[in-house]
Amino acid sequence: MKLIRILLCYLLIMPSVVYSACSQKFLGLGAQITGFVIGNELSLIVGNSNAIVSLEDDVLFNSQAIVTNTETIVAAGITVYSGRVFFGNMTLDGSMDRLATIHSSPSQTLHLTMTNEADIRFDAGSTELKPTDTLRVFGINNTILVSETLTVSGTIVLQPFGELTFIFDDFADDPKIIFNTDFNLTLSPNTRLVFQGNGTVEFKDGFSIFMDSSGGQDKPELIIKDSASFTISAPAGVTSSTTTVSGKGVLFIDSGGEVRIDSRRHLILGGQGTNVDDLDIIVDRAGVLKANEIAGQISMHNTVGTLDFEQGGRLEVVEGAVIEINALDRATSSGNISSWKIDTDGQMIINGELIIGENADEATFDWDSRRSSISGTGVVTLAEQLEFAGQPLGVFRYFDSTSITAELLVRQIVNTVNVLSDSTVFTNFSGANILRIKSTDVLGLPASSIILKQLRDPESSTGTDRIINEISTAVLGITGRGDPFRYLSSGARI
Question: What strands, in cross-sheet order, belong to the sheet with 127-129?
Answer without folding.
Answer: 127-129, 149-152, 176-179, 200-203, 229-232, 258-261, 288-291, 314-317, 347-350, 373-375
